[in-house]
Design a protein that fits this description.
heterodimer, A: alpha/beta, Rossmann fold, Arc Repressor Mutant, subunit A, 2 domains, 5-stranded parallel beta sheet, 4-stranded antiparallel beta sheet, 12 strands, B: alpha+beta, Beta-Lactamase, Heat Shock Protein 90, 6-stranded antiparallel beta sheet, 5-stranded mixed beta sheet, 52% helix
Chain lengths: 226, 502
């Protein structure tokens, strides 16, 4: 994956480049908004990681300028301004996701990977399949190995989100944001309990577990046999 | 600046001067107009009388000649308060009348003249003034008829002097009144200025004096006092925050630092280093969430989140939070129920209210014991819910209640529990920033409502009471000041003291 990091703090940018390289991604760095804009216009990037407060041109205006030029590269906004209304402002300006600082690298990576696959993703499919697990988005039917699994509406949405991003790490915050539409920290790890309930419904009694915990990051649904 | 100079410089005094000038000019104009008109009226009356007499006399002359005219005039001249008469020959020799002397040349001009004269019987003393008409009779005789003007002049002078006096009195009284009012206003403004100076000097407890008259200065002072109260609360909050940051953020920071130091000291293997680093990250994550909660409270208290208020359904919100926490409660062996059948419309910030409610539910779960109590207490009825989330309408208010069967909070500690960072002793061992209740209280205040803690017998009942239509100040900005805050109906629940944290 090719990424562009627009971040004025050199240390933070270097850290990100290094960490991304370790997991096999290539990243360019721009240290101010103007540089970020020209690189973003020329280069063919999979995802842009943009800080909000930048010298010469702020992050939101950079995104606005890119979108005005019909550059639809997914953008992850990084910002120290982490309140709900900041987030809304960021997404309205054309950002695709918003991650408040300080962030954990695994959270950033999970989000970047989800963003990079958004283009041509499986959003349009009506049936998601992972191994012998099948989720029909229209009829709300969930089957595993030919037998139907009964899910609560919220469990269905949780599974739908996980399967939409099958093979990708999905963090607890991402689940809280996308399945419950909450952006606060629920203090206790409520998501874990929901996941273990879901797991008992879809994995219990099957030899091949599909819903995996990724230590220190989140969860992933994947076909373990592959 | 002298006291008098200060007085003259006030707006009130300047206004007084302007009004005074306008009123004085107006009075002078009015009386002047009145005086002139009166004079004109009197003059008209004189000319009418004189004209009538001349018509009458010339008729007498036409019928009876000069002899008859002289007789008539001598008769009329002797009546008291009579008009002035004079009949002369062509040469100017007086034939009859009551005029002794006249200004020279009057008789030669036919028509109206104002002239000085003396009556026949007067030989000396001041001359009088009269308005006379000289009429040429056929046959060369001249007839003069006139009226004394003394009456007219006296009336005129009375009015003019009355006018002068009244203007003078208007000015004197106006100035005195103006000074009095100005001094009164100035005294109150001075008092306000003095208070604001002490406040500027740093004493935020000062309040502007209220005279109790309910006038515009009182209203201004009242509103400024409300503003001061808010500023004081904010300053107090700021001080509290910095104190608490010093205390509660430095403790985990110290722990973090100690752990790093300990990891560096002595030889460790990779696994031990990794464990130390993982603990460091965990600790710093906790710090971040504490910090986030603090920022959120500060933001809610400064009213910044008011732009994101929308129409929402509190019942749906309660169900959603209940659904989020139900598996967690279930895992602990606690029954969590949501009682919100009807839609409960509410205007507010969904995210913040959800978070406030989530905090209350999180606390309730944290402090609840599983249904099977260790002391063997048997619950009455069939499987009662340990935790109940309720959303209901109460008049113009919406009540969001979270009731648990946990140990509750002793009444004495309830106010303190809402304060930032306070974690009652027994909760020290549980995870959490200690900001849950204060955040819920801040969110309630942001919406113009309040958080109340009361006894659930046993357990704790936390009630977030919010005005259904959003904060009062947002509904009708201008009218809000006229409506005393205490007119809002208070929640009927009398079980606990409402605690308005702040």
């Amino acid at each position: 994956m090719r990424l562009l990091i627009v971040e004025d703090d050199h240390d933070a940018a270097d850290y990100l480049v290094k960490a991304l390289r370790e997991v096999g991604h290539v990243a360019d760095v721009a240290h101010d908004g103007e540089e970020g804009l020209s690189l973003g216009l020329d280069g063919d990037y999979d995802v842009l990681i943009v800080d909000r407060m930048l010298p010469r041109r702020d992050g939101l205006s950079l995104i606005g300028a890119l979108r005005a030029k019909k550059i639809e590269t997914p953008v992850l906004i990084l910002s120290a301004l982490g309140q709900v209304d900041d987030r809304i402002k960021g997404l309205r300006a054309g950002g695709d996701d918003y991650l408040p600082k300080p962030y954990s690298f695994s959270e950033l990576l999970a989000r970047v990977e989800v963003l990079s696959r958004r283009r041509g993703g499986r959003a349009e499919e009506t049936v998601y399949r992972v191994a012998d697990l099948e989720l029909d988005r229209l009829s709300h039917n969930v089957m595993r190995g030919g037998s139907e699994i009964m899910l609560q509406p919220r469990e269905f949405r949780l599974l739908e989100y996980l399967m939409k991003h099958a093979g990708q790490v999905v963090t607890r915050t991402m689940l809280l944001e996308n399945v419950w539409d909450y952006h606060f920290d629920p203090q206790t790890n409520v998501i874990d309990v929901h996941i273990s309930r879901l797991r008992s419904k879809i994995d219990k009694g099957y030899a091949q577990p599909l819903l995996h915990t990724v230590r220190g990051a989140g969860y992933m649904i994947r076909d373990g046999a592959r | 600046m002298t006291a008098l100079g200060k007085l003259f410089r006030t707006t009130t005094f300047k206004l007084t001067l302007v009004y005074l000038t306008v009123f004085a000019l107006f009075a002078a104009f009015l009386l002047g107009y009145f005086a002139l008109n009166t004079r004109r009226l009197v003059t008209e009356q004189i000319t009418d009388t004189v004209d009538a007499e001349i018509t009458g006399l010339s008729e007498q002359y036409r019928q009876g000649g000069i002899r008859r005219l002289v007789l008539v005039i001598e008769g009329r001249s002797r009546r008291p308060g009579s008009s002035l008469y004079l009949v002369t020959t062509f040469q100017g020799e007086a034939l009859a009348g009551n005029i002794g002397s006249l200004a020279p040349g009057v008789l030669d001009k036919p028509g109206w003249t104002e002239t000085a004269y003396r009556r026949q019987e007067e030989t000396e003393g001041a001359e009088h003034h009269a308005l006379v008409r000289v009429f040429q009779l056929p046959g060369g005789f001249r007839l003069l008829v006139g009226r004394d003007l003394e009456e007219r002049e006296r009336l005129y002078h009375i009015i003019v002097s009355a006018g002068r006096w009244s203007v003078a009195i208007v000015i004197v009284l106006g100035l005195a009144g103006g000074l009095f009012v100005t001094r009164r206003v100035l005294r109150r403004v001075d008092a306000m200025t003095d208070t604001s100076r002490t406040i500027m000097a740093g004493d935020l407890s000062g309040r502007l004096p209220i005279a109790g008259t309910g006038d515009e200065i009182d209203r201004l002072a009242l509103n400024l006092n409300i503003m001061l109260e808010r500023i004081e609360a904010l300053m107090h909050g700021l001080k509290e925050v910095s104190d608490n940051i010093a205390h509660d953020l430095k403790t985990p920071l110290t722990r973090l630092r100690n752990r790093c130091e300990q990891a560096l000291r002595g030889d460790h293997n990779d696994i031990e280093y990794r464990a130390a680093l993982e603990q460091t990250i965990e600790e710093s994550d906790r710090l971040i969430s504490t910090f986030d909660a603090l920022l959120m409270i500060a933001r809610a208290e400064s009213g910044q989140a008011r732009d994101n208020m929308t129409e929402l359904d509190a019942a749906e919100l309660a169900h959603s939070i209940g659904e989020l926490y139900e598996p967690l409660a279930d895992e602990k062996g606690i029954v969590l129920a949501v009682e919100a059948e009807q839609p409960v419309p509410l205007k507010g910030n969904r995210e913040l209210i959800s978070q406030a409610l989530a905090n209350l539910v999180d606390n309730a779960i944290k402090y609840s014991e599983p249904a099977a109590k260790p002391d063997g207490a048997v619950e009455e009825g069939a499987a009662p819910s340990d935790i109940v989330i309720r959303a209901e309408s109460d008049g113009s208010k919406v009540l969001l209640t979270v009731a648990d069967r946990g140990p509750g909070i002793p009444e004495a500690d309830r106010v303190r529990a809402i304060e930032r960072f306070v974690r009652l002793e027994r909760s020290r061992s549980l995870p959490g920033s200690g900001l849950g209740l204060s955040l819920a209280a801040a969110v309630a205040r942001l919406h113009g409502g309040e958080l109340t803690l009361s006894d659930n017998n046993p357990g704790l009942k936390s009630i977030i009471a919010l005005p259904r239509d959003g904060p009062l100040e947002m509904r009708h900005d201008s009218a809000a000041h006229d409506q005393p805050r205490d007119q809002q109906p208070s929640p009927a629940d009398g079980a606990g003291q409402p605690i308005v944290a702040g």
